[in-house]
């Protein structure tokens, strides 16, 4: 199955709404002829409203709450995000898990809320360095997938992002063998849970840059990227997207 790859930029807590809107215009202008890659911008909540994007460009929120409305000071619901025109929501990013203490149970509630709101979760999973060193990578991925997807009947609207925590924002990229073996574990775990899982995207994230994108996108099982740092710069983000399109065109 030849999936259209996804290049998603997670801006984290960067860019004001006006900076974000002009960044998106500049990026789109550099990528006018892109046809074989889906490009997702994930600004902070304040920059999500009324963005001028249409396929192959999409927008995503970086988080959400699982309830529709209610007394949840500081939270944002799925319907609020959808009303902004976004199609995706990043759930369970390692910073949500490890800086803000989100549990697999919360992440699961969020995944289900996003699906119930007819939006698409980008579920992030990944091991810490000490877990990798203890040989627990596959166990961690299995547990995060099983718990994150508990009660989810079908995978069709879900994107998975494998992001080894030790490679996020550190400049250290997992090597090709590590990425290939983690992606193959993810595929095997998903296949046990959902027979149709071949049709879903599994992205790689962790220090993806224009210099390593070509190697990483060719690793079997990698269907695109979730990018932090390099997604904040128009030239790098556009160049990574172009690389992914070029490699994809070779396979068509
Ligand atoms: P990075 O971040 O590309 O800066 O390593 C990736 C992410 O947090 O999704």
Description:
The protein is of the alpha/beta class. It has a single domain (6-251), classed as Aldolase class I (TIM Barrel), CATH 3.20.20.70. Helices cover 38% and strands 15% of the residues. Strand 1, helix 1 (17-30) and strand 2 (38-42) form a beta-alpha-beta unit. Helix 1 packs parallel to helix 9 (234-251) and helix 6 packs parallel to helix 7 (176-193). The protein is globular, with a radius of gyration of 17 Å. The N and C termini lie close together (11 Å).
Write the CATH architecture name: Alpha-Beta Barrel
Low-confidence stretches: none
Q: What would CATH call the homologous superfamily?
A: Aldolase class I
CATH topology-level name = TIM Barrel
Percent in helix: 25-40%
Report the bound ligands by name, code or SMILES.
2-phosphoglycolic acid
Q: Rough shape? A: globular
Largest sheet: 8 strands, parallel, barrel
Number of strands: 8
Quick one: CATH class?
Answer: Alpha Beta
- What number of structural domains do the residues give? 1
Pattern of helices and strands: EHEEHEHHEHHEHEHEH
> Overall pLDDT, averaged?
96
Q: Per DSSP, what share of the residues sits in E-state strands of 2 or more residues?
A: 5-15%
């Amino acid at each position: 199955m030849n999936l259209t790859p996804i290049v998603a930029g997670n801006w984290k807590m960067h860019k004001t709404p006006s900076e974000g809107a002009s960044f998106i215009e500049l990026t789109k202008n550099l990528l006018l002829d892109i046809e074989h890659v889906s490009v997702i911008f994930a600004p902070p909540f304040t920059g999500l409203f009324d963005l001028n994007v249409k396929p192959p460009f999409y927008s995503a929120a970086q988080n959400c709450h699982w309830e529709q409305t209610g007394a949840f000071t500081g939270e944002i619901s799925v319907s609020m995000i959808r009303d902004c025109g976004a199609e995706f929501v990043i759930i369970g990013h390692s910073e949500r898990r490890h800086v803000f203490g989100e549990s697999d149970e919360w992440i699961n509630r969020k995944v289900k809320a996003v699906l119930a709101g007819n939006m698409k979760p980008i579920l992030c999973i990944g091991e810490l360095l000490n877990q990798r060193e203890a040989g627990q990578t596959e166990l961690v991925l299995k547990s995060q997938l099983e718990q994150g997807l508990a009660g989810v009947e079908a995978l069709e609207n879900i994107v998975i992002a494998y992001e080894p925590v030790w490679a996020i924002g550190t400049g250290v990229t997992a090597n090709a063998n590590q990425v290939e073996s983690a992606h193959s574990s993810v595929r095997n775990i998903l296949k046990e849970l959902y027979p149709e899982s071949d049709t879903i995207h599994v992205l790689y994230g962790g220090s993806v840059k224009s210099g390593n994108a070509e190697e990483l996108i060719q690793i079997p099982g990698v269907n695109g990227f979730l990018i932090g740092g390099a997604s904040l710069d128009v030239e790098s983000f556009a160049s990574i997207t172009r690389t992914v399109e070029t490699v994809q065109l070779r396979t068509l």
